[in-house]
């Protein structure tokens, strides 16, 4: 497995977890970019947009354009992945117990 794919899978899980931690399950792409940076994944906002688009195609998030950022909202399927109730191929599997 390539390092690029490993980074993408880790980033996708980090995005879903960040959304799951929010009371309304939503964050904008700039806040998600900063969150990823805190975990050592330093990428552009466009890269984050691409990952949000991918997660939307998988049914894990809904994405709304809001000017230069996008707002991602966690879906039930995305939450189920974070809680280990379903597996979304292409997203790192959460470890047991968080």
Structure in a nutshell:
The protein has 98 residues and is an alpha+beta fold. The chain has one domain: Arc Repressor Mutant, subunit A.
Key structural traits:
single chain, 98 residues, alpha+beta, Arc Repressor Mutant, subunit A, three-stranded antiparallel beta sheet, 3 strands, globular
Helix content: 40-55%
Q: In percent terms, what proportion of residues is strand?
A: 15-25%
Output the CATH homologous superfamily: Winged helix-like DNA-binding domain superfamily/Winged helix DNA-binding domain
The CATH topology is: Arc Repressor Mutant, subunit A
Strand order of the largest sheet: 1-3-2
Radius of gyration: 12 Å
What would you say the CATH architecture is?
Orthogonal Bundle
Largest sheet: 3 strands, antiparallel
What does this protein look like?
This protein is an alpha+beta fold and 98 residues long. It has a single domain (3-82), classed as Winged helix-like DNA-binding domain superfamily/Winged helix DNA-binding domain (Arc Repressor Mutant, subunit A). Helix content is 49%, strand content 15%. It is globular, with a radius of gyration of 12 Å. The mean pLDDT is 96.
Fold topology:
Layout (H helix, E strand, L loop, with lengths): L2 H18 L5 E3 H10 L6 H13 L3 E6 L2 E6 L1 H7 L16
Helix pairs in contact: 1-4, 2-3
């Amino acid at each position: 497995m390539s390092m690029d794919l490993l980074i993408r899978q880790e980033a996708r899980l980090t995005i879903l977890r960040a959304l799951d931690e929010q009371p309304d399950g939503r964050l904008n792409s700039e806040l998600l970019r900063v969150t990823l940076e805190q975990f050592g994944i330093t990428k552009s906002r466009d890269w984050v947009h691409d990952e949000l688009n991918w997660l939307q195609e998988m049914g894990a998030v809904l994405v709304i354009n809001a000017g230069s950022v996008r707002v991602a909202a966690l879906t039930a399927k995305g939450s189920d992945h974070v809680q280990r109730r379903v597996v979304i191929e292409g997203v790192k599997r959460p470890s047991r117990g968080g």
